[in-house]
Amino acid sequence: MRKRRPPLTKQQKIVLRVAAGLLPILAIIIAIGAINEKDAPPPPAATTTKAPAEPVEAAAEPKPAPAESKAEAVLTVENNKDFAALLAAVDDHDLFKEFAAKYQAEPSSSMAPSLQ
Fold first, then answer.
1. Cα–Cα separations (whole angstroms), residue 27 to 17, 18, 38, 116
2. pTM of the model
3. Can you list the alpha helix ranges (DSSP code H) found in 1-116?
4. Measured between alpha carbons, how far is residue 9 from residues 21, 53, 111 in Å?
5. Low-confidence residues of the chain, pLDDT below 50?
């Protein structure tokens, strides 16, 4: 015959009930986090690291000099009025959104439009 265990104390019963109540809540939080993570767009760094596959015809075309494209792609306060305004703004979220919308869709070779 087995030796009988002593009954659980009141404190042990409370701990078990709390743990049993928290487990489903924790599972729901993890599930919601996983769903939100799937729906979230990839971070900008992840989208820029992927090199798009270029057709063979496009590879045969001459490309502009690297010095020119790098100079155009770098936004500075001196060459971009919008960027200067963005850096000067502290809590203007609308300006941040406008800047991101304007420059996100443009190819990297035209990232720095002339001063306005």
1. 16, 15, 17, 54
2. 0.31
3. 10-39, 44-49, 56-60, 66-73, 81-88, 93-104
4. 19, 67, 69
5. 46-47, 49, 58-60, 64-65, 67-68, 70-71, 109-112, 116
